[in-house]
Write a structure and sequence with these properties.
mainly alpha; 150 residues; Arc Repressor Mutant, subunit A
Length: 150
């Protein structure tokens, strides 16, 4: 490949990463507006499951966010009455997160939101799975590996 081709490919990839991310987030935000929830709040709520203990530290690790990013999200979700923060008795520095009844009800609607958003994209099931596998590979190699080495 020529250098010019490589430069053009890199530019195009940058553009495609940018517009894809922007469009997907915009589509989700159209649905999330009615619940007064932002996309980052939505992602955090997806990971909170009352069937397993979730701590702020766990959320940071699973979502690859630092505590400075996750703390304001947690505060907003608590203010909206969607989660409770519970300090553990054995170590008050550890904060467990649980969905409230209101949060549980909202989360039930999330699968419908995701389904509606993904149906808007003109992709076959095969394309969707290919896209998923490509993103999974990218994430495993570039994001998960990066955080494991820190």
């Amino acid at each position: 490949m020529t250098r010019k081709y490589d430069d053009e490919l890199r530019k195009e990839l940058c553009f495609l990463f940018y517009v894809t991310n922007k469009e997907i987030v915009n589509q989700f935000n159209q649905y999330l507006k009615r619940y007064d929830i932002s996309f980052p709040n939505y992602i955090v709520l997806l990971y909170i499951d009352n069937d397993r203990p979730i701590y702020i530290k766990t959320l940071c690790e699973e979502l690859y966010l630092d505590s400075g990013t996750i703390s304001p999200i947690i505060k907003r979700l608590e203010k909206k009455g969607l989660i409770n923060r519970i300090r553990t008795l054995e170590d008050e520095r550890r904060v467990k997160i649980e969905l409230t009844d209101k949060g549980i009800e909202l989360k039930k609607e999330f699968s419908k939101i995701s389904e509606d958003v993904f149906q808007q994209f003109d992709m076959s099931e095969e394309d969707t799975m290919s896209y998923y596998h490509l993103l999974r590979k990218f994430t495993d190699r570039n994001i998960i590996a990066k955080y494991k080495n820190q």
